[in-house]
Design brief:
Residues 2-98 form the Stress-response A/B barrel domain. InterPro entries: Dabb, Dimeric_a/b-barrel. This is Stress responsive protein. Pfam families: Dabb. The chain has helices spanning 19-31, 67-75, 77-89, and strands at 2-10, 13-14, 17-18, 40-47, 58-64, 90-99. It starts with a strand and ends with a strand. The radius of gyration is 14 Å and the shape is globular. Helix 1 (19-31) packs antiparallel against helix 3 (77-89). The protein has one domain (2-99): Alpha-Beta Plaits (2-Layer Sandwich). The strands form two sheets. The chain has a four-stranded antiparallel sheet with strand order 4-5-1-6. It is built from three helices and six strands, in the order E-E-E-H-E-E-H-H-E. With 100 residues, it is α+β, with helices and mostly antiparallel strands. Strand 2 (13-14) and strand 3 form a beta hairpin.
């Protein structure tokens, strides 16, 4: 199994909207990809809890059968379609993939 974790920090303003609006849109777009390919065992998207000491604004946490499922997810047209929006609103991105 592969665990795929991505964390983002967003710009204060981008795409004509503030960070809060872009966070909600980004979360919805990511959630729309939760079942695009077989082999995704867990899919969680969360935003930082206000008032807590957080280093990132948004996180995606996935558990997948194997590296092929991750590659299929990365290249799926629905996932590819959200990348331009994400790139336009994201200030910083971190990712880690590892075998479990």
């Amino acid at each position: 199994m592969i665990r795929h974790i991505v964390m983002w920090n967003l710009h204060e303003q981008a795409e004509g909207a503030d960070k809060a609006a872009n966070l909600e849109k980004a979360k919805a777009l990511l959630l729309s990809c939760a079942q695009v390919v077989p082999g995704i065992r867990a899919f969680e998207v969360a935003t930082a809890t206000p008032g807590m000491d957080c280093t990132n604004d948004l996180v995606l946490h996935m558990l997948l059968d194997d590296a092929k499922v991750l590659a299929d997810y990365q290249n799926h047209p629905q996932h590819v379609a959200i990348k331009p929006f994400m790139k336009s609103v994201v200030k910083e991105r971190r990712c880690m993939d590892y075998t479990v």
